[in-house]
Amino acid sequence: MENLKVGIVVIKEQMAFAQRHLAATTESLKALGCAEQNIQIRTAPQMLSVPLTAQFFAEYTDVDAVIILAEAETSQAYEAMLYGVTRLQLTWNMPILIGDCTTAEQAVEIVKTQSEMEAAAPDYISPDHKSVN
């Protein structure tokens, strides 16, 4: 997808997981048409700070989607992160995907779907997907 911009969040608490998947994620994004300069990587210090880091992407950059490299776990911190990310995703109308390197393809797919739906929307609907709020 041309001009696609993606933010990637790695979590210090899960740095071993991120290191195993970061290169594959960026390579997948590039193979899917995302230019290297359009991939931004940021680090969240812990699981609970991920929603805030994703919000910074939404507020301070023009990324189309955010990928959070995180291994699923059954902890309260992970559940809290999921809740925060879900609320943020709905508030900002921006795809935020959580997982491993396979989320790159999902991110491109959902941004493509979003762009197609925006283009087909009536003129009175704002074409800027971040202008919902």
Short structural description:
The protein has 133 residues and is of the alpha/beta class. It is built from four helices and four strands.
Total domains, how many? 1
The general outline is globular
Q: What is the highest CATH level, the class?
A: Alpha Beta
Distance between the termini: 26 Å
Counting DSSP H or I runs of 4 or more residues, the number of helices is 4
Fourth CATH level, the homologous superfamily: Lumazine/riboflavin synthase
Q: What are the secondary-structure elements, in order, as H or E?
A: EHEHEHEH
Mean pLDDT: 87
The percent of residues in helical segments reads 40-55%
CATH topology value: Rossmann fold
Unreliable parts: none
Largest sheet: 4 strands, parallel
How is the largest sheet built, in terms of strand order? 2-1-3-4
Q: Determine Rg (CA atoms, Å).
A: 14 Å
Number of strands: 4
Q: How would you classify the helix and strand content by structural class?
A: alpha/beta
User: Beta-sheet strand percentage?
Assistant: 15-25%
CATH-defined architecture: 3-Layer(aba) Sandwich
